[in-house]
Design a protein that fits this description.
Blueprint lengths: L11 H11 L6 E2 L16 H13 L12 H12 L8 E6 L1 H16 L5 E5 L3 H10 L3 E5 L1 E2 L4 E2 L1 H8 L7 E5 L12 H14 L2 E6 L8 H4 L1 H9 L3 E6 L12 E6 L3 H18 L6 H11 L1 H33 L6 H4 L4 E3 L4 H11 L1 E2 L5 E3 L7 H12 L2
Parallel strand pairs: 1-12, 3-4, 3-7, 7-8, 8-9
Antiparallel strand pairs: 2-10, 5-6, 9-10, 11-13
The chain binds 4'-deoxy-4'-aminopyridoxal-5'-phosphate (PMP).
The site of 4'-deoxy-4'-aminopyridoxal-5'-phosphate (PMP) has 14 residues, from helix 4.
């Protein structure tokens, strides 16, 4: 039977990681995989998480199953972190999932159950895994314009023109903050326009939020999601704890479905539980429990927020330094977008040939679409990158 299987395309980012490891050059720079790194290139366990792990080890008395939707305390803590007071809690169904990817996958599954005709509108570009999961599931996708390759900002007119095509059968997938891979984001008045259009068309918003706290701050990064949740009748929100809690391998995420009312919530909750049951039964608990402990304990929470804020401002400082260095070397302001973008990523707007030359001639590894991971830099490597960019003629 296995002979009928087809070769699957290798994950490009993971292949890049391998190539980086094999490169013998000392001054090589890894701007590929989307993992936060400190100035020494390490991805540390956050202090509050380490502390919570210690406490959990002491206090945990059983590893028996939790509920199908995971521990209710996790859902409460995360709903509050992401949605604040935007909607009444009794309209929000939520289920823990294996990472943000699990939440995205379950959301698509729910959409397919609710409406097999639904098309999913995705930004061009978007996180490649969105496309690959949708393709695997056989769900039709429609790309909407998002990134202006000249200005490296959001092509908002193009986006709105393309979204004008949505119908009441469709879902529009939006990144909550820190757009991956471009780093270009909607401002609040643009979010308002998108919400008005979706309400006008009756399309369902789905928000993927994987970097809350990496952009402008925990509250600021949730402003778009909160607006959508409070101003549209229904929405889906897929959240990841991988980045902002630094617990990538624990596989911790949450899918939320906001309903019109409490009755709608009941139906949604039953569906989320059902979907967990069909796909993997009980979701992972360890990471979710750590997150709950951190969010519920004043001391741990303060420590987590302070460390997250340090990561965020560190990335912003690197952005500023890179934009300034490029301005100095190139004598032009055309790289100012690097300081405007938010989150871990920026799309440079280089051609695939230029990306290859950056790797071959300068040992700078970035994804083929010219996405660079700002957290892969430190104060010393910024000038090296800036020089490589200018020498490559980007
Ligand atoms: N959505 C987006 C846009 C992402 O960038 C990521 C992480 N690469 C995820 C979801 C999910 O991450 P994870 O499954 O590791 O939580």
């Amino acid at each position: 039977m296995f002979e009928h299987l087809k070769e699957q395309p290798a994950d490009k980012i993971l292949a890049l990681m391998e190539a980086f490891k094999a490169d013998p050059r000392d001054n090589k720079i890894d701007l590929g995989v989307g993992v936060y790194k400190d100035a020494d290139g390490n991805t540390p366990i956050m202090a509050a998480i380490k502390q919570a792990e210690k406490q959990l080890w002491e206090a945990e008395t059983t590893k028996s199953y939790t509920g199908l939707a995971g521990d209710p305390g996790f859902a409460d803590a995360m709903v509050s972190l992401i949605l604040g007071e935007a909607v009444p809690r009794d309209t929000v169904a939520a289920a823990a999932t294996p990472g943000g990817t699990g939440a995205v996958r379950q959301a698509f599954d729910l959409v397919r159950m609710a409406n097999p005709k639904a098309r999913i509108f995705v930004s061009d570009p978007t996180w490649p895994n969105h496309l690959s999961i949708l393709k695997h599931m056989g769900i039709e996708t429609v790309a909407y314009r998002y990134f202006d390759n000249e200005t490296r900002a959001v092509d908002f007119d193009g986006m709105m023109a393309d979204l004008a095509q949505v119908t009441g059968d469709d879902v529009v997938l939006l990144h909550g903050c820190c757009h991956n891979p471009t780093g270009a984001n909607l401002n609040l008045s643009q979010w308002r326009e998108v919400v008005a259009l979706l309400n006008d068309k009756g399309a369902l918003p789905m928000i993927d939020i994987a970097y809350q706290g990496f952009g402008d701050g925990l509250e600021e990064d949730a402003a778009g999601v909160r607006l959508v949740a409070s101003e549209t009748p229904e929405c889906l929100i897929a959240a990841s704890c991988s980045k902002n809690f630094g617990i990538y391998r624990e596989r911790t995420g949450l899918l939320m479905a906001v309903a019109r009312d409490a009755d709608g919530r009941k139906l949604n909750q039953g569906t989320l539980n059902y979907l967990n049951r069909q796909n993997y039964s009980f979701p992972p608990d360890h990471g979710a429990r750590l997150v709950t402990m951190v969010l519920s304990d004043a001391e741990l929470r303060a420590s987590w927020q302070a460390e997250l804020e340090e990561m965020r401002t560190g990335m912003l400082a690197l952005r500023e330094q890179l934009a300034t260095e490029l301005q100095r070397l190139s004598g032009s302001d055309r790289f100012g977008f690097l300081a405007q973008h938010r989150g871990m990523f920026s799309r440079l707007g280089a051609t695939p040939e230029q990306v290859a030359r950056m790797r071959e001639d300068h040992g700078v590894y970035m994804v083929g679409d010219s996405r660079l991971n700002i957290a892969g830099l430190n104060r010393n490597s910024v000038p090296i990158l800036a020089e490589a960019i200018v020498k490559t003629g980007i």
